[in-house]
Amino acid sequence: MSTMPRVPAHAPKPFWSPLWAGLALGVVLLATFLVTGHGLGATGFTTRLSAWLAQGVPALQGPDSYLGPIAEDGIFSAWIAWQVIGVALGAFFSAKLARRIRIQLDGQKTLGTGRRLLTAFAGGLLAGFGARVAAGCTSGMGLSGAATLSLAGFTFLVTFFAVGLVVSRLVRGVR
């Protein structure tokens, strides 16, 4: 007779060890550089999506506008669009295999639902704006930039985490 507790067949699988997850991410990043010649990133796709959605708005589509040249190429003409689609599909199937698909709102106990949604939306807008100003997102500037030993990548990572800590303290209050 075994002393190990039985785990129901429908229980979610445990999370990966942070060490193994980090190593796997490093292998994926290296493979991405070797196969495509690019690192990882995401905000280039959201810019292309914005350009596509802004078609028909003359002020946003002229040849001298920021989105104009991007819209001319089309939404799926760049590698980054296919990368983001692949990440979304991979995340979905991975969560399904691990039996971890569920809709939830984290942080609502400490902030309340309305405040949590507002801070998440505002934080997403600010992070997206910052990513465009920095010419890369956390994966593009942080992971790919640091992997290539870019000073901009390391500067971005330090700044991103420092600002995140400060804003977290301001939003939740100092404890």
Describe the structure.
The chain is an all-alpha fold and 175 residues long. It has 2 domains: 15-102, no CATH class; 107-175, no CATH class. The protein has helices at 18-36, 43-53, 58-61, 68-73, 79-97, 108-111, 113-134, 138-147, 151-172. Helix 8 crosses helix 9.
Topology pattern, helix = H, strand = E = HHHHHHHHH
From the spread of the alpha carbons, the general shape counts as: globular
Structural class: mainly alpha
Number of helices: 9
Task: Estimate nothing, just give the exact number of structural domains.
Answer: 2
* SS strand fraction: under 5%
Nutshell version of this structure?
Helices cover 67% and strands 0% of the residues.
Secondary structure: elements and pairs:
Elements: H1 18-36, H2 43-53, H3 58-61, H4 68-73, H5 79-97, H6 108-111, H7 113-134, H8 138-147, H9 151-172
Helix pairs in contact: 8-9
Provide key terms for this protein.
9 helices; 67% helix; mainly alpha
